[in-house]
Amino acid sequence: MYLKRLKDLREDIDEKQSTIAKFLGITRQQYSLYETGKRDMPAEYIKELAVFYNTSTDYILELTNDTRPYRRDI
Predict the structure, then answer these.
(1) Is 19 helix (H, G, I), strand (E, B) or coil?
(2) Which domains does the chain carry?
(3) 22-30: which pairs have CB atoms within 8 A and are 24 or more residues apart?
(4) Could you tell me the sign of the dihedral formed by the alpha carbons of 8, 60, 46, 57, in that order?
(5) Left, alpha or beta for 72 (phi > 0: left; psi -120 to 50: alpha)?
């Protein structure tokens, strides 16, 4: 489940939920609901977190185990 991957990514860099919430512009409580699966996370947040963690949305969504981000041409 991708929620565990989100938590693992956050813990790998020793960050708290409040830091990630601030990055997304939401409350820690709201982020906690996403990370625990009590609310569905918007795709835009998943995209922003992929950039934040320097990985791909496919990695976060467990479509791949490759942590490398995709090359962006934009």
Answers:
(1) helix
(2) 2-60 (1.10.260.40)
(3) 23/48, 23/52, 24/48, 24/49
(4) positive
(5) beta
Write out the two tokens for 7. 């938590």
Rounded (to 5) percent helix, strand, coil in the chain = 55, 0, 45
Q: Is the pLDDT of residue 73 over 70?
A: no
Tell me how far apart the alpha carbons of residues 53 and 32 are, in angstroms, rounded to a whole number.
18
Confidence of residue 2 (pLDDT cuts 50, 70, 90): confident
Model confidence pLDDT, tens digit, residues 34-48: 999 999 999 999 999
CA angle 33, 47, 49 (to 5 degrees): 60
Is the pLDDT reported for residue 8 higher than 70? yes
Question: With 0-12 CB in 10 A as exposed, 13-18 as middle and 19+ as buried, what is 6?
Answer: buried
